[in-house]
Amino acid sequence: MPAPRCARAARAAGHNPSFLGASARPVLSERGCSERKEGAGTLQEPAPGAQKVARGACACTRAGSLHKECALSLPSGASLRTHMAAGAVAGIMEHTVMYPVDSVKTRMQSLQPDPKAQYRSVYEALKKIILTEGIWRPLRGINVTMLGAGPAHAMYFACYEKLKKTLSETIQHGGNSHLANGVAGSVATLLHDAVMNPAEVVKQRMQMFNSPYKSVLACVRTVQKTEGFGAFYRSYTTQLTMNVPFQAIHFITYEFMQEQINPRREYNPRSHIVSGAVAGAVAAAATTPLDVCKTLLNTQENTALSSVNISGHLSGMVNAFKTVYRLGGIPGYFKGVQARVIYQMPSTAIAWSVYEFFKYFLTKHKLEKRAAF
């Protein structure tokens, strides 16, 4: 009879766990768990004929319990539904918690702001908006953001995880590949932005100073009637031009940070928060010029466009780049960079920590249910 691979499995099988040695403790490996004798520093391989458990589950699940180490491990074989559910929750949390700062960022990126809407810092802007326009003003448009963020991030994380795994197996034979991370993040962005772009257009128009729209529905109807359906995707190419490098930098940086501070890839909230914050800050600072152009295309800022004799609607990334340069020169491309970094650091930290928690929680729950039978 094959030897049990852990003390708890030994008890369940009717063995005396003391034969393993008092100092033995379970150690997690990619394939499951095995025993390590303290001081020997070697892993004891599973006994010949030991049955493998699907989806990365440790053999101890067959005994009706989970090791602490196994329970803390990040699931490598989580289902598509798990990735989508975790991604949807993470996306909604990311966008809603930091939404007031996002409102400030949109206003600070205005190329020719109203004198009443000129701000020197994020704190000053929030204070001024609340005092002069009301406490709920920084949250205008949050409902349409939540509506778009759920499905957008569900597809985004599911696509990223599937592609990352497939490409890593091809490029690195199952190991971590920065190229695979970057490519997977970039492709996932195509799906994310296709859903999120219309919500971004409505959101940013609601956020602007003296916005003429009384509600999200009124904004949608007015834009559709006066500018056509294409207005909701006018900034799509610019959004992709910004988000593809943003997400490539973001995912590469996140996975690199995880390699440094969480090499065993256990569920470690602190490592997910730190890695997410660093990844968000680096990616946000690097892509601010593209974000300024996207904001101009989304808001169609009348005062700014009129000052450079542009009538009608501005369209196209190249035209947006030229207009920003004419209005603000090189510094114009970095308007709102402080607010953008301050927004993205906690946003990506929240997104990754919430995503990894729900992925861990949902998979652990599934494993425990399976172990109970």
TrEMBL record:
Molecular-function annotations in GO: ferrous iron transmembrane transporter activity
One GO cellular component, as annotated: mitochondrial inner membrane
Keyword Transport listed: yes
Membrane topology of the entry: Multi-pass membrane protein
GO process annotations (BP): iron import into the mitochondrion
UniProt subcellular location: Mitochondrion inner membrane
Solcar repeat coordinates: 78-166, 176-260, 267-361
Transmembrane segments: none
Origin: domain of life: Eukaryota
Stretch forming the signal peptide: none
SUPFAM superfamilies noted in UniProt: Mitochondrial carrier (SSF103506)
Catalytic activity reported: Fe(2+)(in) = Fe(2+)(out)
Keywords (A to Z) from UniProt: Ion transport, Iron, Iron transport, Membrane, Mitochondrion, Mitochondrion inner membrane, Repeat, Transmembrane, Transmembrane helix, Transport
One Pfam assignment: Mito_carr
PANTHER family, per the entry: MITOFERRIN-1, MITOFERRIN-1-RELATED
Similarity comment text for this entry: Belongs to the mitochondrial carrier (TC 2.A.29) family.
Function (record text): Mitochondrial iron transporter that specifically mediates iron uptake in developing erythroid cells, thereby playing an essential role in heme biosynthesis.
The protein's name: Mitoferrin-1
Biological classification of the source: Eukaryota, Metazoa, Chordata, Craniata, Vertebrata
Gene: SLC25A37
